[in-house]
Amino acid sequence: MGVLQELQSGVQAVTDNVGRSVVGIGQRWGIGSGVVIAPGKVLTNAHNIRGEQLAVTFADGRHEQGTIAGVDIDGDVAVLSVDTGDVPPISWNGTADIGLGLAVFALSNPGGRGLRVTFGLVSGTARAFRGPRGRRIAGSVEHTAPLLPGSSGGPVVDLEGRLLGINTNRLGEGFYLAIPADDALRRRVEALSEGQAPSRPKLGVGVVPPQVARGLRRAVGLPESDGLLVRHVEDDSPAARAGIAEGDMIVAVGEQAVSDADELHDALEAAGTGATIELSILRGLEQRAVTVTL
Fold it and tell me: Hey, is 238 helix, strand or coil?
């Protein structure tokens, strides 16, 4: 059998094994894809969620209303509760060993507009992208299977049709990033299915990128400094309760200097929800210490 015939047979086999498990998410707007992972449960991306109920369209054209079982916004995954009928759940690959050149198939059903199946190769591993709220999502798999808009939330699978990842972020020029379906994701998905949302520490501030912050300080006659300039403070947030104000610059968490948002997120994650930390901030020319309970 030639290469093209083998590829054709592979696409047909994956379609037969996995196609019924791939669903469309949303209609008209909020369009995306998803995959049945257990009876009554569909996995998709958090950025596909709009409101408390979403239309879910199955491969046979059946429409159901799904409700949110659990959402991890910063991890960009969500689980919906919906009547999946007799649709078989997808099988997990069960390994994080995804290497360069691995042949993969990507499946989607953009907004319920019909099943798509494409072929590609793993072109990169340990990649990172930004989630819906700007947090870095590391460890992603890059592949070359072409995908239409509305494909995020759909599965990328191996030759046996087992789940390798959830397609999430388009890089352009024919590349896509998928959140790997490793043990860590499986544990998160199981918790979300039970309604257990992840608890991540937060300050409750919006910050300006460092390069912009340096320019803003220079524009008002202040010396340039590495740090994160606060542009917004949420009401009744840990930052607000600690007295942090718009215009302050966060320069360190404890003894650790922070010069970008990723370093701040990493420091907060290391401290954990409920921890009390000390921030060093610049207010104008004055540096001061502020105690914050996350």
Answer: helix
The per-residue pLDDT string of the chain (294 residues; one tens digit each, 9 = 90 and over) reads 577 787 788 778 888 889 999 999 986 655 899 999 999 999 999 999 888 788 999 999 999 999 999 999 889 999 999 999 999 999 998 665 788 989 999 999 998 889 999 999 999 988 888 888 778 888 899 999 999 889 999 999 998 899 999 999 888 777 899 999 999 899 999 999 999 888 788 888 888 877 777 777 777 777 777 788 888 999 999 989 999 988 888 888 888 888 888 888 888 888 888 888 898 988 888 888 989 898
Same domain, 263 and 188: no
* CATH for 230: 2.30.42.10
Report residue 224: phi and psi, to 5°: -65, 145
**Residues ≥6 apart with Cβ < 8 Å to 265:** 135, 136
Taking the C-alpha atoms of residue 251 and residue 259, their distance in angstroms, rounded to an integer, is 7
Separation CA 251–CA 255 (nearest Å): 10
Residue 112 lies in a domain: yes
The domain of 32 spans 3-193
Assessment of whether the complete model's pTM goes beyond 0.85: no
Q: Rg (Cα) of the chain, in Å, rounded?
A: 22
Q: Are residues 158 and 57 in the same domain?
A: yes
Asked if 84 and 41 count as a contact pair (C-beta separation under 8 A), the reply is yes
Asked if 116 contacts 110 with a C-beta cutoff of 8 angstroms, the reply is yes
